[in-house]
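Researcher: Structure for this, please.
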Amino acid sequence: MGSGKSTVARLLCQSTGRPLAVSDVLVATAAGRSIADVFAQDGQEAFRSLEKEVLAGLDPGRNLVVDAGGGVVESPELVAMLRSRGVVIWLDTPWTILRERLDTGTGDPGRPLVEDLGWEELEQLHRRRRRLYAGAADFRLRAAGEPAAELVRTVSLRSLLWQRRRNAGGP
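Model: Predicted structure, token format:
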């Protein structure tokens, strides 16, 4: 939450012409209600289950840019699926920047975890997920206030290099 992944994903799609799949939008569409309503009425576990369904249902041949929710790393099954279909990029944003963005509302509105958890719990969640992101990502990109356009250029270049290595049978 607040790392800039939605902005970077949108700009990446604009620069590459690839279609965008936003997991939260797909989940809300599948549920027929907002993410906040899914969390409030059914809980986080139900949301994660729907998230698995919609991400598993994406066509791997479409060459999508997927803006997956920050909690996707909680599921080893989803991480394996995403990694098998493409490159997984981690926008590593320091907690101080995330807190500022979430506190000032510069991020997207309607974040159930921000509304339900206190700052201390959110920071603990961030610390725990950092380890999961490190294990899930094909590469880490430090996102500590760099302009989104610069992050998109870096993502494009690193993704291209990653794809070439993968096609050549490298790690």
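Researcher: Any notable elements?
Model: The longest strand covers residues 89-92. The mean pLDDT is 85.
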